[in-house]
Design brief:
Blueprint (H helix, E strand, L loop, with lengths): L8 H9 L3 H28 L5 H34 L5 H28 L5 H39 L1
Helix pairs in contact: 2-3, 2-4, 2-5, 3-4, 4-5
Length: about 160
């Protein structure tokens, strides 16, 4: 009893060159850490200054951003990308990516500024919380805009191809 197994060469090439899941996760964690670390660092500095409490406060803000904001950000980016493809089908992908980057920067900055202010200031004084949110948001916005435009125009397309591999 002989059995013949036929394998398509494309299947062999795909399985042989497929990127392992752990590498995909590491790339995404690295990108997220760079962005969230930088932005929460700026926001924490604006709220507490470079005091003895800075590093502890920054670490709490970073971990909050990493475990709360990152999943929200990845979900929002996916939805926003699909919406932009639907709403602006005749617009070049590079232009859509810039629009997505700008929207994501403002959205994520606002949310990270809130979680950072909540972590560093707390909820006891709503005026102080708002002031902390606003100062963190405005200080980190230029950094976030630059990072998001850079990421959405240069890194995002490469990462999307890498994640699909």
């Amino acid at each position: 009893m002989n059995q013949t197994i036929t394998v398509n060469s494309a299947e062999i090439e795909t399985s042989a060159t497929s990127t392992p899941l752990y590498k995909k996760i590491l790339v995404m964690m690295g990108m997220m850490s760079l962005m969230a670390g930088t932005l929460t660092g700026v926001m924490t500095y604006m709220n507490v200054g470079l005091s003895d409490a800075f590093y502890g406060q920054w670490l709490r803000a970073f971990l909050t951003a990493a475990f709360v904001m990152a999943p929200l950000g990845f979900s929002a980016m996916t939805v926003l990308t699909k919406l932009m493809e639907k709403w602006l089908p005749n617009t070049a992908e590079s232009k859509r990516n810039i629009i997505i980057g700008l929207i994501m920067a403002v959205f994520m900055e606002s949310m990270m500024a809130f979680t950072t202010a909540a972590t560093t200031i707390g909820f006891a004084d709503s005026n102080a919380l708002f002031s902390g949110w606003l100062s963190g948001f405005l200080a980190a916005l230029p950094v976030g805009l630059a990072l998001m435009v850079l990421v959405s125009t240069t890194i995002k397309p490469k990462v999307e191809r890498f994640l699909k591999s």
